Amino acid sequence: xxxxxxxxxxxxxxxxxxxxxxxxxxxxxxxxxxxxxxxxxxxxxxxxxxxxxxxxxxxxxxxxxxxxxxxxxxxxxxxxxxxxxxxxxxxxxxxxxxxxxxxxxxxxxxxxxxxxxxxxxxxxxxxxxxxxxxxxxxxxxxxxxxxxxxxxxxxxxxxxxxxxxxxxxxxxxxxxxxxxxxxxxxxxxxxxxxxxxxxxxxxxxxxxxxxxxxxxxxxxxxxxxxxxxxxxxxxxxxxxxxxxxxxxxxxxxxxxxxxxxxxxxxxxxxxxxxxxxxxxxxxxxxxxxxxxxxxxxxxxxxxxxxxxxxxxxxxxxxxxxxxxxxxxxxxxxxxxxxxxxxxxxxxxxxxxxxxxxxxxxxxxxxxxxxxxxxxxxxxxxxxxxxxxxxxxxxxxxxxxxxxxxxxxxxxxxxxxxxxxxxxxxxxxxxxxxxxxxxxxxxxxxxxxxxxxxxxxxxxxxxxxxxxxxxxxxxxxxxxxxxxxxxxxx
Length: 489
What we know:
Layout: H1 3-17, H2 22-31, H3 47-76, E1 80-85, E2 89-94, E3 100-105, H4 108-114, H5 124-137, E4 147-154, H6 157-174, E5 183-188, H7 193-202, H8 206-218, H9 224-227, H10 232-241, E6 249-252, H11 263-274, E7 282-291, E8 294-303, E9 306-313, E10 319-326, H12 411-417, H13 424-435, E11 443-452, E12 455-464, E13 467-474, E14 480-487
Parallel strand pairs: 4-5
Antiparallel strand pairs: 1-2, 1-4, 2-3, 5-6, 7-8, 8-9, 9-10, 11-12, 12-13, 13-14
């Protein structure tokens, strides 16, 4: 019952309590004209009865007002908040009847999937179907990025859990077809002012903010700012690849890794860079990880008295970072020791390489700044760090000046190659692949061609989703030489 209907009922009640009988009274008076009317004393209504009647009337009005408030609350008050995250972030508020009150986009991609659709007053199920369908149609959900997060916030924990389970099941059914299989993460959330500030700052839902916070709490190497730019599919892969168990997050389906080169190629790139073959290594491990918001294959192995750690760009296969240091658990083949762990000294020569002793600084080969992503084949120009890993007192380690696929480039060769540039389109496509951003989603795009040390360089800048990007691309090969990504103030 609406407020207007309640007001009409109250007016009708008062009208019925005092009926319009004036004409009937005047007629009766005319018929009695000239007659003697005996007046009898009328007993006064006691104040107690008046009080009782007043209480009854007040009770009726109270009941009516309560009913009206209850009706208003059921129709216009937010009972639950449901958020959907892929890369688009959308928040849906519904009343107790699960009728949509509003659908709000939290970022530009969210606006794209809502388009000109008006969901106000529609069933929650209808809105979900339309929004998920729009994500599929616009390519946000696909074979290469198939994960979606649904989060439910309701003051009643039991209702939250029930709605979470039901919506996750409905979305999962929508994403399971003959040609496509999705992955659904679901959780219940509760209001958190600090987390809400982070969500508002980065243009995401409270649900995605809570998921990121959980990953950080399990793996403190990561930061909120680093992970916020990742899609739900990337966060899903990240949580599954490591030994992370997320609390209160239900998962159905398998996150797609089809956008990446795969472990086999990443391993080959690392071994080529190190100048080793599979038969040379032991204690090999590989997992997907994130470095500065970029998905990488983190590869570790041991060989010839050394430990190697590599970060391989998961899309391009470029060696982003590597470290090489003495293996403390290594036992030289010519000095077997039962139950005794030995580190090879300067006199030991396993596999033609001599690991440095305790007084020697290990070769890290790490790129000096997180913003640079030199390929192993990157020319040793200013601003890049070529692979010059050497063991003190020995020859250069095999693999230096090698590209991930084993090719060799010297400075003179790079200068020669720079005579022909790949073109802006090729450079731009390399940047799009590296950043994981479609060109049409970029704003403020600029591209300048420059010459540095005789080499052709493309300098590309743009903004997207609250971040500023700056790239330097090798004009001869299309390789990413350097990049920076920072929050757009």
